[in-house]
Amino acid sequence: MDNELIELGFWGVIIVVGLILLRLLLRRSVPVLGVLYYAFFRVLSFLFSFLNGLQRHLSKPWRPLYKRHHGSDGFNKFMRGFWTVMKIPLYVVLTPLRFVNAFFYNIVVHSSFEFFNYMGEIFDPTSSKEGGANFITWLLLLPLRLVKYGWHYLLSLAESVFWTVIDTIVPALTLYHGTEQSASVSICQSPGRIGSKSWYDGIWRVGGGNFAGNGIYFAPIRSTAEYYARSNTYKALIICRVSLGKVIDLGMAPKYVYNQCGSADALDSTKWGLNHGYVTGEWWRGDREWWEYCMYDWQNRYNSSWRIRPIYIEDLNNKRVLRIPGGMAHWLFRNMVLADMSKSLFK
Length: 347
Description:
This protein is α+β, with helices and mostly antiparallel strands and 347 residues long. 53% of the residues lie in helices and 13% in strands.
């Protein structure tokens, strides 16, 4: 009996020491994993950035014709209707490409990133209340974290599959948003999961400038978004799946609307767009020679949460994927998201 107790105690010490070493190792490895994820995503993105761009260009091949406004307002109104009809056969032809892009970005990339976040919370929690402060708390709460974050990862997988189907039917693009690192975390993290109860967690808010209308801005190429992150000391890039909805080519908008673009707070673009059923404005910024998307958000009322779905964040200073404390806000299983979707569907 004494030998059995000694042997049990011996193995208990081995397990505890092993867990301590594992905790230390994981704390050291999180930044390294972030660098590896960054390299992994960048390598894969060479192909899928091309496929995402191909989907964007082929869905509206006449886009270059409307970099600038031309023609009368009446003629442009006719052309808006004409090109809407022309999108129908292109929509059918591009269905397989939409599925490939949706599968890669929603399931492969987003699920991998959430695995990185949740494994970090299980073995290296960011909250002191969940065991980040000392080893005893860490050990006692390990089973609770396994259940909690394992469950959230299953939800992330479920919503990734759901949105893969939706993105195949309702076109979405992978777009980029450049900002400051703390802002990127606030935008993407789940409200309250590790104790933060800030109203601004998990939502998008209108920033300054707004040269193509009041709203949330996205770029189809990463270098454009990196330009907008340049003024921050700690720069970040949020890579998102965005359901743009009904898009107005601002080169085909009424001339008074187009003429206001390029000036700060182009409110007429937002007002006219929303009044005519447009969710997003697409604008060619001539002074920089690039395209931008503005998802209209009138008077900073917070943008519909389900339309903008972050898939991961890059720390541009250190060339790594940025860990999100507690994991990202769910795309689907949140009251705000469900409320936004019901408003869009039944308004």
